[in-house]
Amino acid sequence: MTTIGEVFVVTSSGSGHLFPCIELCKKLSLRNYKATLVHPSNTSAALDSALDDQRHLIGTIEITAPIRGPPTSNTSPQQMGVELEAHLSGRSNGLNLAHPMCAIIDFQMGWTKHIFWKHKIPVISLFTFGACAASMEWGAWTSNANEYKLNPGQSQTIPGLPEETYIAYRDLTRHHNRPARTSTGGGDGPPKPGDQPPWVPLIEGSIALMFNTCDGLEHPFINYLENQIGIPVWGVGPLLPDKYWASIKSNTLIHDLQSRNPNHLTNQSEDRVKQWLDSKAQGSVLYVAFGSELSPTKEELKQLACALEEIAYPFIWVTQNRLNSSENEEKSEGFFGLDDKIGERGLIIQGWAPQLLILSHKSIGGFLSHCGWNSTLEAIGFGVPILAWPIRGDQIYNAKLVVNYLKIGYLALPSGSPEMVKMDLLKGIEKVISDEEIHKRAGILRAKFEQDFPATLEGALDKFKDFVKEARV
Predict the structure, then answer these.
(1) Is residue 312 part of a domain?
(2) For a FRET experiment, which of 115, 284, 297, 431 has its CA 20 to 30 Å from that of 463?
């Protein structure tokens, strides 16, 4: 069958970028596009298993690239993306290949747009986080939020955005630049409210924007960005594996190793995790995970351990410690003594955890989360209420979406006081597990996810197809 045309998809490093880009490639290939994934060399291991049976449908180009973000002064620009430049130059110099329709670029890889422009290939920027976070960053910047004169307890709405997604005094004083948990970098951290979002210069020159979200979840935020930036904005997600959607529709467990073989170290097998979950009552388990890059402070983790010891509910706590590290403080201290006290009531996972399996299990009653976007989408799809503990960046705005706008969660630390961490957590855990109304709302949103997908995605890709076709004429 003749393809419509070739589309390049450029991903950054990290599972939160790579996996959505792979899913986008799959969706494009199923619509008869030739999808070519351009990826940093350090993602090759994860790529092979994630492409699974569609590897023959998706082309790949491995490039030299910084681990995160644009090239720095320590990186020779001539070394960046040389493989991509060579590929595109080869096409122009005699290879009998049709001119690509466009390049869809993860905004963190925005520096590659100049390579595509050199070969007259239009660029669409892809956000792997949500439209609410981008809207609030844009709105805070354009409304000069850093000049707001707020007192403790006060807040300010952003013109054009839902009133529930306001800028609070706490947002202006919050310490955003938390240290990264891994050695993969992360720059100087996200901007404070009112500063220019770092993605603004990276998307300049784009003919459209794509977000890993959908209209049913973030319609007003998608519309806001389209009106503000003046180019088409499409929600092409949620970009999650086919097995995820099959699990939601059939109300069955999903096994991570069948959809995303992580090749990461862990102290608990997927079978062991399932066996433990099977032994717990429906809706009784608290799942605790903060992603792979950021973490609460050591003192906050100590207070979390105290709270988990005191609650009556069973729990799973995922700690992203490298098992081969000799400086693993939590391991040497027995996770603040917690693992010696909890017995079978708790399961502590070091390293990788089968998150899709956990969230899809009927015993899960709440998710204490940093509100990373992929984790947030996964929990929403499975109808799991969220106890939001955002640490920095888009997580803070994702928490506002969950708690204030969708009303399917609570803030983990509403007092904002270091002395109240344990008490805040005890109250929050009780509410997120036992509040029937919040579980009802989470269930309604899950059903909406099930009903809307894939129709909303197909509608967005139809708009993409028509727009790109018209842009080429």
Answers:
(1) yes
(2) 115
Q: Give the pairing of strands 315-319 and 208-211.
A: unpaired
- Around Cβ 30, how many Cβ atoms within 10 Å? 14
Domain housing 434: 253-449
Nearest to 84 by CA among 106, 117, 61: 61
Distance CA 77, CA 75 (A): 6
Bridge partners (DSSP) listed for residue 346 = 315
What CATH number should be reported for the domain holding residue 365? Answer: 3.40.50.2000
Omega before 296 cis (within 30°)? no
User: Alpha-carbon Rg of the chain, whole angstroms?
Assistant: 22
Residue type, 401: L
Q: What is the DSSP letter of 339?
A: G
Label residue 324 by pLDDT band (50, 70, 90).
very low
359 domain residue, yes or no = yes
Q: Where are the alpha helices (DSSP H) in 151-214?
A: 169-173, 200-203
Q: How far apart are CA 147 and CA 152, in angstroms?
A: 15
Query: 26-40, 135-149, 182-196, 208-222: lowest mean pLDDT where?
Result: 182-196
Residues 278-281: contacts with CB within 8 Å, 24+ apart? 278/363, 279/344, 280/314, 280/363, 281/363
pLDDT (tens digit per residue) in 149-181: 888 888 999 999 999 999 988 888 765 444 444
Global confidence as pTM: 0.91
Q: Measure Cα distances from 272 to 275, 317, 360, 418 in Å.
A: 5, 14, 16, 35
Rounded to whole angstroms, the Cα distance separating 44 from 70 reads 20
Domain count, the chain: 1
- Tell me the two tokens of residue 21: 């880009």
Residue 257's pLDDT band, with cuts at 50, 70 and 90, is low
Could you read off the pLDDT of 378-432 as tens digits, one per residue? 999 999 999 999 998 899 999 999 999 999 999 999 998 999 999 999 999 999 9
Residues 6+ apart with CB under 8 A from 46: 15, 18, 260, 262, 263
Cα separation, 450 vs 447, in Å, equals 5
Phi, psi (degrees; rounded to nearest 5) at 46: -70, -25
Nearest-angstrom CA–CA distance, 130 and 118: 30
Return d(Cα 172, Cα 170) in angstroms, integer.
5
Instruction: List the structure tokens of 307.
Output: 């709270």
Task: For residue 235, tell me if it sits in a domain.
Answer: no
Residue 328 included in any domain: yes
Query: What is the distance between the alpha carbons of residues 464 and 399, in angstroms, rounded to a whole number?
Result: 29
